[in-house]
Specification:
single chain; about 120 residues; alpha+beta; 2 domains; elongated
């Protein structure tokens, strides 16, 4: 059958700062993944392909959706999706549209603001 075969595994955790010139497939991570394969699948499985998944991470793993305070509600930041933001695209889109059009939202999104980092 066409297309890749296999399963995707990931180790979701804050990692080291990404350095562009280093190759994908950090040896320590490969060792961890091989241990998981051995422990749970009890078969001689090998890693067919390795890629480092790069994504932004906020300190608390929540998104950051807010106006940048120094720009008088002219610039909105939406970042820090910590590898799982795609699941929330519909509501994130609604929140951002509300902020652009009304400068506020009825969605309970206050906890996603920048102010939480200065407390």
């Amino acid at each position: 059958s066409p297309g890749p075969r296999g399963m995707k595994f990931g180790h979701h955790r804050p990692g080291d700062e990404w350095i562009p010139h280093l190759p994908d497939g950090i040896p320590a991570e490969t060792k961890v993944l091989n241990g998981v394969l051995d422990r749970y699948f009890h078969r001689d499985l090998t890693i067919g392909e390795w890629a480092t998944c790069k994504y932004t991470y906020s300190e608390d793993e929540h998104f950051i959706l807010d106006f940048l305070p120094e720009y008088n509600q002219q610039v909105i930041v939406a970042t820090g999706f910590s590898g799982h933001g795609f699941k929330f695209v519909p509501v994130i889109g609604e929140i951002l549209a509300d902020l652009v059009q009304k400068e506020s939202t009825e969605h309970p999104a206050g906890f996603l603001g920048l102010g939480r980092f200065s407390r």
